[in-house]
Design brief:
Blueprint (H helix, E strand, L loop, with lengths): L3 H12 L3 E2 H11 L9 H16 L5 E5 L2 E4 L1 E8 L4 E8 L9 H18 L5 E4 L10 E5 L5 E11 L5 E7 L9 E9 L4 E10 H7 L1 E3 L4 E7 L12 E3 L3 H9 L3
Parallel strand pairs: 8-10
Antiparallel strand pairs: 1-3, 2-3, 4-5, 6-7, 7-8, 9-13, 10-11, 11-14, 12-13
Helix pairs in contact: 1-2, 2-3, 4-6
Length: 256
């Protein structure tokens, strides 16, 4: 288990009923799931769940049913019963991302979604190829049909469910070429929606080199951007609708 919230989710899912934060904590400690040096882990458990509910509102996986008592949130789904001429409201538990998914798997998922966007939404046909080895920082190679022009794309993704979360990423400086044939894409996978956020950052490599933070004596470039509002930081002008990605690549190819 990775956090108090992960632990609470698992215990509440098994119980099928609301539980007091003290009871959730007691079960977690008995199972050896909770490793904490704090003297009042039940208070921490309560605080973590309350903050999650207050910050995420309807998107929180938890609901408060009584003082310090919590249950899992359900979503309501309308099912039409044509035989009886009425709608039935069915409650389904909100899904949660698997805690066992690896960093590499997350990266592969994001790269696959980016390839789908490039393939589906371009005004002209683009083809995507994945290198057998990406040790040069190239995650996708994109080619325009009937042309020899190629774009090299490095993709940095983050997974989460908080719209206020700051997007932070680093990339090795040796993998970023000072050439407009290379682009960096920064994308956020919203685990509540089960898809990429509606916007992503599309940054030509030369622009990225000029604007990124230099870290570790120049060995790394740092990218820091907010995603709550489009007008939040110096990377604003590179934030695009994800469905415009293919046409941005086509436009970028004209600069090569």
């Amino acid at each position: 288990m990775n956090s108090f919230k992960d632990i609470a989710y698992q215990i509440l899912e098994e119980s099928g009923k609301p539980l007091h934060s003290k009871e959730i904590t007691k079960i977690a400690l008995e199972r050896g799931w909770l490793k904490t040096a704090g003297k009042t882990p039940e208070a921490t458990m309560n605080a973590q769940l309350v903050v999650d509910i207050n910050s995420k509102k309807e998107k929180s996986l938890f609901v408060k049913t009584a003082p310090s008592t919590f249950a899992l949130r359900f979503k309501e789904v309308k099912i039409s019963d044509k035989g009886k001429g009425k709608d039935i409201i069915k409650k389904e538990r909100l899904p949660k991302i698997s805690p066992k998914i690896s960093t590499k798997q997350k990266g592969d998922i994001a790269e696959a979604r980016i390839a789908e966007l490039i393939t589906l939404y371009g005004d002209t046909t683009l083809s995507c190829y994945k290198p057998l080895s990406d040790d040069e920082g190239i995650d996708l190679i994109v080619k325009e049909k009937d042309s020899l022009k190629i774009m090299y794309i490095q993709i940095k993704s983050r997974f989460g469910n908080n719209p206020d979360e700051i997007f932070v990423a680093t990339t090795k400086s040796v993998t970023v070429a000072d050439n407009y044939s290379m682009v960096l894409i920064f994308c956020f996978f919203d685990t509540e929606e089960g898809d990429l956020w509606d916007y992503l950052w599309f940054v030509p490599a030369p622009d990225f080199i000029k604007m990124a933070n230099s870290l570790d004596n120049g060995k790394l470039y740092g990218f820091v951007a907010g995603r709550k509002k489009k007008e939040s930081n110096k990377w604003d002008k590179y934030l695009i609708d994800k469905r415009d990605l293919a046409n941005m690549i086509i436009s970028q190819m004209k600069r090569i």
